[in-house]
Amino acid sequence: MGERMNRIARAGLVLTLVASVASCSKKEDSAPAQAKIQINGAGSTFVFPIMSKWTAEYTNVKPDVQINYQPIGSGGGIRQTSEGTVDFGGSDGPMSDSMIAQSKVGPILHVPVVMGATVAAYNLPGYTGELRLTPSVLANIFMGTIKKWNDPAIVRANPGQRLPATDIAVVHRSDGSGTTYIFTDYLSKISPAWKTKVGKNTSVEWPTGIGAKGNDGVAGMIRQTPGALGYIEMTYADQNNIPYASIQNSSGAFIRPTPEGVTAAAASAQVPDDFRYSITNPPGKDAYPISGTVWLLIPRNPRDKEKGKVVVEFASWILTSGQEFAPALHYSKLPPSLVTRVQQALSQAPPATGTP
User: Fold this and answer.
1) Environment class of residue 348 by beta-carbon count within 10 Å: exposed (0-12), middle (13-18) or buried (19+)?
2) 26 has a pLDDT exceeding 70
């Protein structure tokens, strides 16, 4: 009898412990999850590969912050930032004075975050040599005046290579694009005819070619079109195994796109206090000529002050820890001197300091 009572007592104790644990577990399960601050950004597809890395890594640093970024093109990023439908934008082309004046959220701060190369990517089945393109050849291809891969001007730039007598299928962006801005900014600098007839912008009236949406869309069109030539951000070309040309720079050297070539292009950049600048066709024998910057577009007086502060903190993190992820994804870090200047500007941003 005594042993039986002991077994009953022990069983009761176990049940009590199980109930206690279950009760605690239930309380923990019913505890409210930590609230997340959701930040929405949109714009540049050029920056999307590294932006995806940044947003993932930042969640580890700030678990209470969730950043959603939609790669809709720089034109869309500028528009949505100006309309106040996103907390920040991404653009590979700076906003013009008139764009800023029309902003519904007031002045917009341009924050450089990374640099990269826009490449002339192509699809030439059977061609395995280095493809070299001069500035005039590139401009004339996109003007539609050079139509064949074996055009004498292309042949002269590629001695010893056998180029096919196939048509060049020009591919360009169909949406508003900072990559387009970089490319047309370059063409406007090296071709008076292009500057006069087409000009530079995130969206232009293309003289020839077929359009595709986003860097990924252009990359896909190039891959599936024999004879194609288009412009895309270098990471998209590398991820899709699409070859790209060496471009003759202002010093006469043919430069293959590399992060180092972009850094060399930035070395001579004259950067104004509003951080709206261009690094296409710079001087320097090692500079890659079709280089560009990506800016975060941050309203100086955001409608949601708390979210505005979080955006500034995210931008500050990109300028420090976030720069370390650039080389592995084929982007170039910002020069340290520029980082210092941008950090100073961010420290004075109203959302970060709470000043009116």
Assistant:
1) exposed
2) no
Verify that 136 and 102 share a domain, yes or no: no
| Domain-embedded: residue 103 | yes
Give the whole-angstrom CA distance, residue 184 versus residue 93: 10
- Count of domains for the chain: 2
pLDDT at residue 288 tops 60: yes
Q: Is residue 93 part of a domain?
A: yes
| 208 in the same domain as 321 | no
CA 281 – CA 250 distance, rounded (Å):
6
Same domain membership, residue 237 and residue 122: yes
> Residue 187: is its pLDDT beyond 70?
yes
pTM for the structure as a whole: 0.83
Q: Which domain holds residue 317?
A: 37-116+291-353
CB 233, CB 181: distance < 8 Å: no
Q: Is 262 within 8 Å of 288 (Cβ atoms)?
A: yes
Integer Cα distance of 327 and 256 in angstroms: 16
- H/E stretch holding 232 reads strand 228-233
Sign of CA dihedral 69, 74, 75, 81: positive
State the Cα–Cα distance between residues 333 and 325, nearest whole angstrom: 9
Please tell me the least confidently modeled range out of 48-62, 287-301, 338-352. Answer: 338-352
